[in-house]
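FAQ
Q: What does a multi-component entry look like?
A: The components come first, one per line:
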Amino acid sequence: MSAVSEYVHNIKDTVSTIFEGMAVTASHFMRKPYTVQYPDRMPVRVQDTLPFRYRGILDVDLEICTGCLACERACPIDCIVIVAEKDQQTRQLLLSQFDIDIAKCMYCGLCSEVCPTGSIHHTTEFEGADYSLESLIRRFVQDPVMAYKAKKGPETDPRIAPILNRGMAYLDQWAQPGGEKPPGEEPA
Amino acid sequence: MSTLRTEEMTLNMGPQHPSTHGVLRFVVRADGEVMREAIPDVGYLHRSIEKIAEKVGYRGFMPYTDRVDYVCAMFTNQGWGMACEKLAGIEVPKRGEYCRVIAAEFNRIASHLLSVGAMAMDIGAMTPFAHVIREREMINDLIEELCGARLTFNYMRIGGVAWDLPPGWREKALKYLDHFDPILEEYNALISWNKIYVERLANVGVITPAEAINYNLVGPNLRACGIKWDIRKDIPYSVYPEFEFEVPVGNGQWGKLGDSMDRYVVRIREMAESSKILRQALQKIPPGAVLAKVVRNFKPPAGECQIRVESGRGDMGWYLVSDGTGYPWRVHVRTGSFAAMGIIQKLSAGLMIADLVTLIASLDVIAPEIDR
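Then the predicted structure of the entire assembly, as tokens:
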């Protein structure tokens, strides 16, 4: 007799717990879905919705690059190659090569952390698919350019000032050791 | 009357098998549907991360620790950071420790969510997986806002964390926790107490407490056998002594003590405990710096140290030997998944082949963590 009652009890348990589960599932029919239809049915581009700290594909603002090679040294996988030489005539640093191998980059953010001006920084761009590995090497220097030299006092050049402001705003996101401003080369 | 000729069958399960949680291989000796034994074959995901540490230096190794266990990378980050700090005698600011605990506990919830969801999917219940992935997605969004990445966080640094909490993040996190606690109840109604699910898990892969200790199990797998051992409580590190939380242990309510159902329920309860810790941490977080001052060219003094962290998969050990240069002399990681792999051969005797999948899922092994 007890075997029969246990059998019936088991069936009752099974059916009731299945309906409990189905009730949860059914309640989700009415809720707003959390998924989005990427990429063609988005009201705004995904890149614009990403947080400021998002570590996407690296970009370099050559106008404010000081050629200090801090990023090249910080990179654990050597995906950044910079050639900076001192011009014999003008006594200034000349950048003749600044390459980043996006295919190698692991988006750790160690390079943008050490940059004194925020020149090398992560964008929110993440769609990097391409047909060849060669095209994934981003070459930022077309013709050799002068490296940026920090001025005493605020930046006055109307072309460079907004870029520098953006760079410093980017750097402000990082934690400062001991809670103070980092001993950067650049006065904010 | 002649009998049917039967013979033992050797079956290869993996390395590419959807339910083995990564690249794992099992050589199964089976008699029909019943296994004589399943011999795990590890090493398919060996990336020599420990050797890489000797080449990239202390700061450069932090992003690599994300790849040791990518499901809960915060703990590997924390382990490496703590090992370096212990060797160099650096003290992390209070707020930095709180940031670490908050990030790590969110990561523990995400890790356990994935574990229980994948377990349900391995057994054949497809719906719960979508539910847990939705919850994990929300945690990923929070962590993305905190540190800019969803999986390979690289959030912690030697001496603290790289970013302070962004403005408004605390309120968002608390709001998420308010949303999360009822979700856990809902999830329990959906799958945990489902009779078919319980029948499938109870009394499968029973580990006795003595076996668990002999086979060196750690974390939720050990606690499911009724042994109350949690590094956060027993060898406290970081700011964990400041929080009130329980250590859930298995009680054999659904079958025998230490079966797959116990391991599953311990994970569900741990998520609720993590939520408790998070609430306290988010309320109590003090102001101040998050990163200690550490010289750019980090060189700890010669010596060795051992650090233990309670990760999502249990006691994670970091052993670090320094010879005083800018590069570690030797690094070793001891992970919970590797210990869990050892017991599979013993447990598999007499189980059905379909239950092997349950067993692997309930031990919550992550393939990259086994091999490093």
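Q: Is there any commentary attached?
A: Sometimes. For this entry: Chain B has 14 helices and eight strands.
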